[in-house]
Input
Amino acid sequence: MLTIKGLHASIDGKEILKGIDLTVKAGEIHAIMGPNGSGKSTLSSVLAGRETFEVTAGEVEYNGVNLLELDAEERARMGLFLGFQYPVEIPGVSNVNFMKTAINEKRKFKNLPPLSAAEFLKLMREKMAVVEMDSSFSSRGVNVGFSGGEKKRNEIFQMAMLEPTLAILDETDSGLDIDALRIVASGVNKLKRADNAFIVITHYQRLLDYIVPDIVHVLYDGRIIRTAGKELALEVEERGYDWLIKA
Amino acid sequence: METQYRYTPEIPEVFKCRVPLPGTSQAFLLNGVLTEEYRDPAGVVVLSNGQTGFKIEVPAGNTSPDSTQIITVRDNKDTRALAFSNNISLGANSLSSFLICTHTLTLDEFVTESEITITANEGANCHIVVMQNEHNFSNHKITFNLIQKRDSFVRINMVTLHGAKIENLFDVKLAEPGALCELNGIYLADGKQQITTTINMNHLVPHCQSRQLFKGILDNEARASFSGKIVVSKDAQKTEAYQSNHNLLLSRKAKVYAQPQLEIYADDVKCSHGATSGRLDENALFYMRSRGIGAAEAKLLQQIAFVYDVLEKINNEQLRNRLQEMVESRLRGEFSHCANCSMNCC
Output
């Protein structure tokens, strides 16, 4: 589904990603761990198409297309989703209207007619239940006045609505209490299918108790320095990153 | 509540106003002349103020929630420069609301100067929405002279959508304790349009409050200036006065001049002012695009979000929703490039 080869990226002339190689297949959950400043968020931003980063070398193939040639919105319409570490507040644009616009843009891209109001509301209700979200959230401005946990839950809700093929969750667990974490994780688990994949970026092993990864990568200084099974996360939790960095 | 629609044959048929809202009565001021005097069942009267202009009297203790819409239009039957004065007198402890619309129906180079003097007597409570939608050859200057007596509340919400050169001046005198004045506005300009807002907020006595919130979105080579002065007199202790002005510049050639000023001669007051100008937030745009929303739509959503808190100050929900739609279509460019933009606008 996703093949990254020798990816280099920089911002303001400073190189952050220094040669990333990564392959993600349908049905897999990958976890990317690493200390602060290792390039985890940069990787997710580059994949989602944030223009502030410049890709200086390497290639990214996503379902047979060159991902790096596409705009952020085209990537999204083709089934890529980025769950933000810091979701943005958009006052004046209700969650309903925001999602309706997003879904219909995606449907237009796929040559499908827009959803009727009834179909849309049904979908909305269904997906809100996945993240145990109160229906009052739908009429509120996107993320406006939401607590940290509510914002993250809203990210998972949006993901559920958009049904991505590849979802990248950037530190979705940061700032979550244990209940919110459980809801977020169970949302991901409910959405997991044989034909989609997840990349879960996290600082801590804690999230991986709930979302069990197939493969764990450790990112350090812009490179993946170790790839192993889920036991790697436990080892990192126990021993920190130093032993990997020094190895 | 029944819709009151008054037949006014003098108004060209091409002008169709989807307003009135339920419970709203309309009065037309054509080239400065009131087409028909009007008295609503609750006792609000709209009269000619001499040859030109209008004079509105809200009786003391009026409790009717109905509102009055004053539609001032200019057309080619009189293309001279016009200046006229209007008066609104708000009786003691009265409730009232007004929608004042300004339009132009033909593409003449109109010059209009009008003055609206509002006297809010003790305990009066008044909401005024001013919607300005004129074509690209129209110069219009409105001066609001507002005098507020004890415990009165006046809120004016400006929605400036279109016009060559629009100037809005406010001279407010908070003359007796307990008066509260709120001035809010959004201004949208593109092309070579110019919008000027000048405010003199005078706190003459203790225990009054004023709040100002103005936001503008400027594209192309549009210019806006906001010059807001708060003056707190020597004895006006316990004054609360706030002002903010924020501007979104969509092009490198758009310019805004913001001049917030505070003159405080009392020593026990709470006052603040803030002015900003900025561009669209890249982070928010990326967030929306990462959900599949195209760049143009994402920019539009952000502009709507930017002015939202000002529109939110309009307390009539129906009117607010309608103006929000107009703002949206204005930002989409749906009538900015249309010469006859002011027709069928609302």
Observations:
- Residues 24-331 of chain B form one domain.
